[in-house]
Design goal:
Substrate Binding Domain Of DNAk, Chain A, domain 1, six-stranded mixed beta sheet, 28 strands, binds adenosine monophosphate
Length: about 575
């Protein structure tokens, strides 16, 4: 089967797309939505929810849900959901599994091959973790693709024949990437990438929440420790206000009471766009260094950039657009939907992998975003000092790449060397990210300076393989960083797949009912008492219909509920509108 799906596995939202005869196309989910929130929940019955339903549950029962887990991919962090422990790979795996079910429902047959995007600035461990998540979900991961590269592909594909240099500025919920890409004669060449793996719109939301609480004499950290429900509700209010402030100049935030409930006297704080901008400005300043670095690495001045492209939900903020325009001296563009462009580009790349006719003449090259190297000791004359980082592959080298460098033993009769592999830009090894280490034995006895060749091979997925060869014997040791203790082994992945198979999920055709029910319950708790009666009756009717199991009756009651909820979001009963 040549069909390969492109997946944007986002911090906040995820999307799947494919390359059809009319170009790249988003695959809708079970609710008919084009984006699936990257949120996982477990409801009272122990059933797993993914997407919009989980996001609704998260507001009321934060302890039953997890979001933003992309931030912890490739770390040892575990997340507790309804008393059950998950690793980030499993949670991402559940999102990917849900996208797989959506694609299968859309095509009416199984699909298994995928191209999954990651932030360009994801390190080796984070990439491995993403591949593991894909496997847990039952995907064959054909390629890991950098998000800004995917966005550039989407633009490049839509503007075939264009020769220009693009700067892709990608600020999502939790990550920031910036890449310089050159398009010429059907070739798309990434010149350089830079970024930060923990900077995004969620930081802005938290900054708003912290300031709102500060204004009431409270500290965010203390409230977070005392009442997760209060924080999750406040964060939801602040996110809405933040998004509304991309359009309006003032928005209101309702602050839940200490027990997390909205009470009749609930304080309502007004936030202006000016305040928001002042609060997030110090965080946003962190985009400047990566932009300078990416231009420097691409050996271009800002005037040589023909176009600046915006990707990611947080680029909807006028402050972000203005700051980018000021830094780069030109108005950025976002002709393609910034929430969908990464998935669309991934679909084009997926078409390349699956050899779709439409993309036969598109060639894409990418770069290694970090310097990769080993720890060495230096003979400084009076002393030998260790702990230095010695690059083997320089950052922004075009991939795939294979480089070899010769090292030698330090002392006579040294029979073994320990190769410690790092990723990063610091001169000191321990200030970079350790990727793993291994031993090379069998060095024949003799004087110091016995040569050992170390070859680094970095593949198209950004995955590193290292080979060390003792020159005197020709014997070599290969070390794939995938086997590093921090990554999941194949047997761990198999165990995770088995554990996933045991989780209960709602049948696909019930997902919409589940979502409406949870949304109605969330709104019910937010409503002033005089409106609760109406919604309460609609909810009772819907629950009775669900118990009766007659599809026509269920649909009728659901529509009535949906009408109420739509009106609630639209008519100002919700002071912040429904711009999520
Ligand atoms: P992404 O990861 O690209 O889906 O981006 C999600 C982030 O974009 C979240 O932090 C959202 O709050 C933020 N976002 C989405 N829409 C808007 C908007 N209209 N104004 C400001 N931020 C937004």
């Amino acid at each position: 089967m040549n069909l390969v799906i492109g997946i944007d596995l986002g911090t906040t939202n995820s999307a799947a797309a494919f390359l059809g005869p009319d170009g790249a196309q988003i695959i809708p989910n079970a609710l008919g939505d084009r984006l699936t929130p990257s949120v996982v929940g477990v409801d009272e019955s122990g059933t797993v929810l993914v997407g919009a339903a989980a996001r609704e549950l998260q507001v009321l029962r934060p302890e039953r849900c997890a979001g933003l887990f992309k931030r912890y991919m490739g770390t040892d962090r575990k997340l507790t959901v309804a008393g059950r422990t998950f690793i980030p790979e499993e949670l991402s795996g559940l999102v990917l599994r849900s996208l797989k079910a959506d694609a299968e429902a859309f095509f009416g047959h199984p699909v298994s091959r995928a191209v999954i995007t990651v932030p360009a600035y994801f390190n080796d461990r984070q990439r491995k973790a993403t591949i593991a998540a894909g496997k847990i979900a039952g995907w064959t991961v054909e390629r890991i693709l950098n998000e800004p590269t995917a966005a550039a592909i989407a633009y490049g594909f839509h503007e075939a024949g264009a020769d220009k240099k693009l700067l892709v500025f990608d600020l999502g919920g939790g990550t920031f990437d910036v890449s310089v890409v050159e398009l010429f004669e059907g070739t798309l060449e990434v010149k350089a990438s830079s970024g930060e793996s923990a900077l995004g719109g969620e930081d802005f939301t938290r900054a708003v929440a912290a300031r709102v609480l500060l204004g009431l004499g409270e500290s965010f950290e203390q409230v977070e420790a005392r009442s997760p429900k209060r924080v999750s509700r406040l964060v939801q209010q602040c996110e809405r206000a933040k998004c509304a402030l991309s359009r309006d100049v003032v928005a209101a935030v309702r602050v839940p009471a200490p027990d997390g409930e909205f009470k009749p006297g609930t304080p309502q704080v007004t936030v202006t766009r000016e305040q928001l901008e002042a609060w997030v400005s110090p965080t946003l300043a962190r985009i400047e260094l990566p932009i300078r670095r990416v231009l420097g690495d691409a050996r271009l001045t800002r005037d040589q950039i023909d176009e600046v492209i915006l990707v990611g939900g947080a680029t909807r903020m006028p402050l972000v657009v203005n700051r980018v325009a000021a830094l780069l001296g030109k108005e950025p563009r976002c002709r393609l939907n910034p929430d969908e462009v990464v998935a669309l580009g991934a679909a084009v790349q997926a078409g390349l992998v699956g050899r779709a006719a439409a993309v036969e003449d598109l060639v894409v090259t990418d770069v290694a975003p970090f310097t990769l190297g080993v720890e060495i000791s230096k003979d400084l004359g009076a002393e030998v000092r260790d702990g230095y980082f010695d690059p083997v592959i320089d950052r922004n080298t075009t991939i795939p790449v294979s480089r070899v460098k010769r090292y030698s033993t330090l002392v006579p009769n040294q029979r073994m060397i320990r190769v410690k592999v790092y990723q990063g830009e610091s001169r000191r090894a321990d200030e970079n990210l350790s990727l793993g280490e291994f031993e090379v034995r069998g060095i024949p006895p003799g004087p110091a300076n016995q040569p050992v060749d170390i070859r680094f091979t970095y593949d198209l997925n950004g995955v590193l393989e290292i080979e060390a060869t003792v020159v005197a014997t020709g014997k070599s040791v290969t070390h794939v960083i995938a086997k590093h203790a921090q990554g999941m082994t194949e047997s761990e992945i198999r165990a995770a797949v088995a554990a996933m198979a045991k989780l209960k999920t709602h049948p696909r055709d019930e997902e919409a009912n589940r979502f409406v029910l949870l949304r109605a319950e969330r709104v019910f708790e937010e409503l002033p008492s005089e409106l609760r009666d109406v919604l309460g009756r609609l909810l009772d009717g819907f629950e009775a219909a669900l118990a009766g199991q007659d599809p026509a009756v269920i649909a009728r009651h659901r529509e009535a509920l949906e009408r109420f909820l739509a009106a609630y979001d639209a008519d100002g009963a919700d002071p912040n509108g429904g711009d999520e």
